[in-house]
Design brief:
The longest helix is centred in the middle third of the chain and has 28 residues. Strand 12 and strand 13 form a beta hairpin. The strands form four sheets. Strands 3, 6, 11, 12 and 13 form a five-stranded mixed sheet that branches. By secondary structure, this protein is an alpha+beta fold. The chain is built from five helices and 14 strands. The chain is globular.
C-alpha cells in the first residue's frame, strides 16, 4: 500500500522480525513513512516535558522547502500543502509560550533622520495594536489489536494509518484555506472585462490598499493565486496569454505571479489573488507525531495516538482579493 506515493510498509518482510518486536517495527516504519510524506524527520514521539517546558518536536532547521503547486509543476505526490506559501511560519516548536503576537501596522517602526551623536528615536507600540494567536491541538489515532498481528491482518493497519494521515493533512488544509474563504466581502474584486484585467486590477488594488494603510510595499511584489482545480486551466490561460504571441499588442499580466495553488478547499465560483507572508502567519507548535503506545487490555491491543499543534491567522485582509469570474 502506498500513501501519497510513499510505500508505507513491506509486509513481505514482517516474518523476518521476531513476534515480540513486530509492533515496534511497525510503528517505526509508520513514522519513517510519515517523515517522507512531510518532507522532514519525524520522531516516534516527542521529548518529555522538562522543567515545565513544552514538548518539543523535531528540529525545524531540518525542514526543507514545502512542496508547492507551482505553475510549471507536473505531479505532486504529497498532501495539499500549497497554503504554506501564503503564510510565513512562526516556529514555536521550542517555545514555552502557547501564543504568539501579531503587531498591527499602526504600531510599526518610524524612521527619523539621525543627527551626529543623536540617539535613535524608538517607536512605541500601543497595546491595542497587538493580537495574540493561540495554538490549536489536534489528536487522533487507532488501536493495533493483538489478533491483527496473530492472524496477519496487516492490511487493517495500512488502512488505519492511511485514514489517520489523510485526515490530519486534510484538516490542516481545510483550516488554512478556510481563512481565505472566511474573508468578508470587503476583499471582493469585481470582474473587469476579462481574467487578465481582473488579475491586474486585484494586484494593483492590494498594493494600493496596503499603501493607504501605511504598509511599505512596491510594484515588484510577488503574488500567489489560489484556485479550485476546475478553473485552474482558465487562470493559466490568462497567465500565458501575453506570451503566446509576443510580437502582438495583446493583453498580459503585468504583475509578478509566483505560484498558482490549486485546491478543492475553495469553491469554483471565484479565486484569490494574495500577497503572501506579511500578516499571514502560521504558528507551528508541534509537528504531526506519534506518542508512546498505551496498552489497552479492554480492546486487547495497544492504542497509538497521533497528535500535533498549530494555528494560522490572516492578520491583514487587505493582502487578499477574491476575484469574480464574470
Amino acid at each position: 500500500m502506498k500513501l501519497f506515493g510513499v510505500k508505507v510498509i513491506n509486509w513481505a518482510k514482517i516474518k523476518e522480525i521476531p513476534p515480540a518486536e513486530r509492533v515496534d517495527a511497525i510503528v517505526d516504519a509508520l513514522c519513517k513513512a510519515l517523515g517522507k510524506i512531510q518532507g522532514d524527520p519525524v520522531k516516534k514521539y516527542a521529548a518529555a516535558t522538562v522543567d515545565g517546558q513544552k514538548i518539543v518536536g523535531h528540529d525545524a532547521n531540518l525542514m526543507p522547502a514545502a512542496p508547492v503547486a507551482l505553475v510549471m509543476s507536473d505531479q505532486l505526490k504529497s498532501p495539499d500543502r500549497g497554503y504554506e506559501v501564503l503564510f510565513d511560519e512562526v516556529d514555536m516548536r521550542a517555545s514555552s509560550n502557547d501564543t504568539f503576537k501579531i503587531i498591527d501596522v499602526s504600531g510599526g517602526v518610524t524612521f527619523y533622520q539621525q543627527r551626529p551623536g543623536e540617539e535613535a528615536k524608538l517607536s512605541k507600540l500601543p497595546k491595542a495594536a497587538v493580537a495574540l494567536v493561540s495554538f490549536l491541538r489536534f489528536t487522533g489515532g487507532f488501536a493495533i489489536l493483538d489478533d491483527w498481528l496473530r492472524f496477519n491482518q496487516y492490511y487493517l493497519i495500512d488502512q488505519l494509518f492511511a485514514d489517520t494521515t489523510r485526515n490530519w493533512f486534510d484538516k490542516k488544509a481545510t483550516i488554512h484555506y478556510g481563512l481565505l474563504t472566511a474573508l468578508s466581502s470587503a476583499v471582493n474584486q469585481a470582474f473587469v472585462t476579462d481574467d487578465i484585467s481582473t488579475i491586474n486590477a486585484a494586484c494593483a488594488g492590494i498594493l494600493q490598499d496596503l499603501t493607504d494603510a501605511g504598509y511599505a510595499v512596491d510594484e515588484n511584489s510577488q503574488f500567489d493565486i489560489t484556485v479550485n482545480p476546475t478553473i485552474k486551466e482558465r487562470i493559466l490561460m490568462a497567465l500565458y496569454a501575453g506570451y503566446l504571441n509576443p510580437n502582438t499588442n495583446n493583453k498580459k499580466i503585468i504583475w509578478n505571479i509566483r505560484n498558482v495553488i490549486a485546491t478543492s478547499k475553495i469553491v469554483n465560483t471565484s479565486y484569490y489573488v494574495s500577497l503572501p507572508g506579511g500578516k499571514n502567519m502560521r504558528g507551528e507548535w508541534e509537528d504531526f507525531n506519534l506518542r508512546p503506545p498505551q496498552r489497552n487490555e479492554l480492546a486487547l491491543g495497544a492504542d497509538h495516538v497521533w497528535t500535533g499543534a498549530y494555528n494560522p491567522v490572516i492578520g491583514e485582509a487587505k493582502q487578499h482579493k477574491r476575484c469574480a469570474l464574470s
